[in-house]
Amino acid sequence: MLLETDRLTKDYGRFRALDSLTLSVGRGEIFGLLGPNGSGKSTTIRLLLGFLRPTSGSARIAGFDCWSQSVEVRRQVAYLPGELRLYENMTGRQLLRFLSRLHDQPLDGEADRLAKRFEIDLSKPISSLSSGMKRKLALTQVLLPRVPLVILDEPTNTLDPVMRDELLEQLLQAKAEGKTVLFSSHVLPEVERVCDRIGILARGRLVHLQPMSELRQIRAARVRFAPGSKPTALPRLDGIQLKEQEDGAMTFVCEGNLDPLLGWLAQHRVVDLRIEPIGLSTVYQRYHGNAS
Fold this sequence. Notes:
Structural class: alpha/beta
Number of strands: 14
Largest sheet: 6 strands, mixed
CATH superfamily of the largest domain: P-loop containing nucleotide triphosphate hydrolases
Strand order of the largest sheet: 6-7-8-3-9-10
Distance between the termini: 31 Å
CATH architecture of the largest domain: 3-Layer(aba) Sandwich
CATH topology of the largest domain: Rossmann fold
Number of domains: 2
Shape: elongated
CATH class of the largest domain: Alpha Beta
């Protein structure tokens, strides 16, 4: 595993910001870290980068302890914070060259390729760029280094829809190159699109951990029956659960094969049937109400 935490805990006085987080993220994986403000996401990232000392427990990246070997850890990581602070007196190219030297990696044609994809003019002073352009420059910077781990905290803030799509494509490209991505976001459709697994934090605790491949296999089937023909006896079918019912309609949650449900419905007068994945939003709402 590239990233591992073992009962990682952080207290601020009597307030516990992160409570016994045990988590592993493998190489070449995109992992979505989810939760509202105050759930422990930023604390987790700061502990991983060695910005904070854990109260108890430990975290390791590429075999290095995140606190006692934090310099070695940061050599393995490219990090994009949620709030940007760039060197405004530089041009975009000067910034990329400066940060590349910190990683001991000379600037090459990949910078121009990414700048073209994100539609950035690297010759312009950073002080003259809009907030969206600064975000795209920062994304270029974080995708450039040849490091095993990329950590992104709300990376699509201020991006337009086209550039959001471009970023997600670049994350999939990074994964194809063997990089691991820790992706913290409030935008659940983005997480659904690129993540291999997700973890949901609530009040500092990891409350849900699931591969996205499993989640995509769980579907909701909403059935409306002809007037007066709604079944009174409910089916007992493997992997099928009744979620709710109303006049003339039922909604089932289906895990796996739909054949048992479809076979049962064939015995009744159905006027409408809609089947769709339950989506990450449904899972998120179990812990945090309406998804943002």
